């Protein structure tokens, strides 16, 4: 394969009609220029330049090669420029995988500001609870809830998860606000049917685990359905905080029993493949999320 540096040196010699001028303009020594041209001629198996002590000219083969060499260098320069722009500013297609509840409850409301801030980024969000393979599935980034990030990936912590009991003001005004977990026996509880121990909610009281039975008029395997039911004033929901983050911020849901929340055992992580040169589009997206979750 041709050495681009040698091709660049050869082209400069032709442009300046001088080995010494080419060396000066390239910032290298004269012997370096001579060796690169000689190596190129050896690799091609033909003389490219006719040289005398007073004159330098292209051979017939050299003239043909120079035409294609100039085109090759133009293509290489264009390719380098195309790649360098990705290192200089965030741009391009950014493919992100995130859990459904996080995508709906936390991530989606944050995206308009990010996309306005970085108009050259085209974001594709795959909301799915499946464990994607970043390399095989073509994702730049995956956001996952885990107590231990997988080996072989870089894991950037985003947020430590906690459980939140919450309800709409309309419901609390109608039924009252529970003051202790035991009060939930008198409330309509919205139950996630796929959790372990569905029908019981775990809290902590005085440093000890407290499990209380709950019941209500609605249960579902969809966190989005439960969130919407809670916002509609149907009852009290008990969900991971990221699923109702925006609702707690905008006041459509209000947290109750915060003093009894159990300690967190898992975190949200941004996972990406090890890469010495992390693309700016990935870096700024992660930094943006970290900044958002640093805020209350």
Structure description:
Helices cover 42% and strands 24% of the residues. It is α/β, with parallel strands linked by helices. It folds into three domains: 4-88, Arc Repressor Mutant, subunit A (Orthogonal Bundle), CATH 1.10.10.10; 96-156 and 272-294, 3-Layer(aba) Sandwich (D-Maltodextrin-Binding Protein, domain 2), CATH 3.40.190.10; 163-260, D-Maltodextrin-Binding Protein, domain 2. Strands 4-3-5-14-6 form a five-stranded mixed sheet, covered by helices on one side. A five-stranded mixed sheet has the order 11-8-12-7-13. A two-stranded antiparallel sheet has the order 1-2. Helix 5 (100-117) links the parallel strand 3 (92-98) and strand 4. The model has no long low-confidence stretch (mean pLDDT 87).
How do the helices and strands line up, and which of them pair or pack?
Elements: H1 4-16, H2 19-26, H3 30-44, E1 49-51, E2 56-58, H4 60-88, E3 92-98, H5 100-117, E4 121-127, H6 134-137, E5 141-146, E6 154-160, E7 163-167, H7 169-175, E8 189-192, E9 200-205, E10 208-213, E11 218-220, H8 223-231, E12 236-240, H9 245-250, E13 254-256, E14 267-272, H10 280-294
Parallel strand pairs: 3-4, 3-5, 8-11, 8-12
Antiparallel strand pairs: 1-2, 5-14, 6-14, 7-12, 7-13, 9-10
Helix pairs in contact: 1-2, 1-3, 1-4, 2-3
